[in-house]
Amino acid sequence: MSFTHKSVFRSAASLALIAIMGTTLLAGVNRLTKARIAAQEKRVILNQLGQLISPDRYNNELQLDLFTFQDDLYFPQGQTVVTYRARLDDKAVAVVMKIAAVNGYNGKINLLVGINEDGTLCGVRVTSHKETPGLGDAIELEKDDWILGFFGRSLDNPPPAGWAVKRDGGEFDQFTGATITPRAVVDAVRLALEYFSAHKSFLFESAVNHAD
Ligand SMILES: Cc1cc2nc3c(=O)[nH]c(=O)nc-3n(C[C@H](O)[C@H](O)[C@H](O)COP(=O)(O)O)c2cc1C
């Protein structure tokens, strides 16, 4: 090999090595970031489960009594719905479903929807979203108490026409200059209630099929 060939080969080898090291580093950082986001979301969920159902109402391991299912009719875009069950001495008390409102302004809004055995809501919380700060983020309890307005509601309260934001003739407030976000959340919560009403025993009786 001539001197020029050798030096070209060396440069190419160094470049390839740098590229491999860069890609490996990036993949590692990516994996770590993903794991950190998942761990953070799990912490948020555990904290919020405690807010939705007060601990004196159940004595099972709520965060372990869970199963997953899919039903595109109610939970579109291929969602896998995680459902936690609360029981007192084995008697069904409530479920908490981890669902997504798919029509947010900036994509999916992840929600926990807690539904008592009698079909009333024990609460709704947002676990993560990409809505615009100052416009759509009033769905977060840290920013506004709008999300508390679901407490005690059911499919009959308000009646079906009321399950919309006020601008659409319903009973739920929209935000100033931001109707898309609350509309998406109201729609998703109503669908979760409809699913509960149609599949209540499935929700309470399905075997644990998911380790979290
Ligand atoms: C940069 C930008 C960001 C916006 N972010 C949101 C949002 O996060 N949520 C929302 O509902 N509307 C958002 N909007 C407003 C919507 O485009 C839309 O106008 C509004 O939701 C309709 O509400 P209105 O009928 O009360 O005007 C945003 C608009 C702009 C220009």
Structure described in brief:
Helices cover 36% and strands 21% of the residues.
Could you list some keywords that capture this structure?
212 residues; alpha+beta; 5-stranded antiparallel sheet; elongated; binds flavin mononucleotide
Net shape: elongated
Q: From N to C, what is the helix and strand string?
A: HEEEEEH
Total number of helices: 2
Whole-number count of domains: 1
Strand fraction: 15-25%
Low-confidence regions: none
Q: What can be said about the biggest beta sheet?
A: 5 strands, antiparallel
How are the strands of the biggest sheet laid out side by side? 1-2-3-4-5
Instruction: Write down how many β-strands occur, each being a DSSP E stretch of 2 or more residues.
Output: 5
Bound molecules: flavin mononucleotide
How much helix, percentage-wise, in residues? 25-40%
Structural class: alpha+beta
Structural overview:
It is a single chain. This protein is α+β, with helices and mostly antiparallel strands. It has one domain (56-205). Helix content is 36%, strand content 21%. The protein contains two helices and five strands, in the order αβββββα. Strands 1-2-3-4-5 form a five-stranded antiparallel beta sheet. A hairpin with a 4-residue loop joins β4 and β5 (121-128). The protein is elongated. The relative contact order is 0.13. The chain binds flavin mononucleotide. Flavin mononucleotide binds at residues 105, 131-132, 135-136, 174, 177-181.
